[in-house]
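If your schedule permits, I should be very grateful for your opinion on a structural question. Please examine both parts with care and let me know of anything in them that strikes you as inconsistent. The record follows directly beneath this note:
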Amino acid sequence: MDIDARGPRFGAAVTTVVLAAVLITDSFWLLAWQTLAFALGAAGGVGRSPYGWLFRMAARPRIGPPTEFEAPEPPRFAQSVGLAIAGLGLVRYGIGPQWLGLAATGAALAAAFLNATFGYCLGCEMYLLVRRVTVRT
C-alpha cells in the first residue's frame, strides 16, 4: 500500500532539526533519540516512526488528504541508511574519535536537509540504484 508522500518529507524536516540540535549541543542523548527514530522507521516503515506518528496525528489533519503517493520501500530503505549513519555517529560520540561522530551526524543532517528542503531523498535514490543493479544480475 502506498504512503502519503508528504509524510517522509515531514519526517526529514523534523530529523533536520534534531540533527542540527545534536551538532549545536553536542548531545549524545539527542543523537540516541534520532537513532531510535531511524530504527523504528527501518523496522516498521516510516509510518511506524515517531515522526510518522506525529505527521498522522498533528500535520495531516491540518493539511488535508494526500494528493500524491509513493511506494513505502524507498523511504524505509532510507531509514535504514539513516540508522547506519546515525548509529556510526552514536558509537563514535560514545567511544571516539569524536570527529567521526560529528562527520556521520553531519552527513545524516545533509541528507535529511536535502529531503526536507528539496524533496530529494538520497536513501531513496540509493534504493532505486540497488534495485536496478540487482535486477540486472
Summary: The chain has a mean pLDDT of 95.
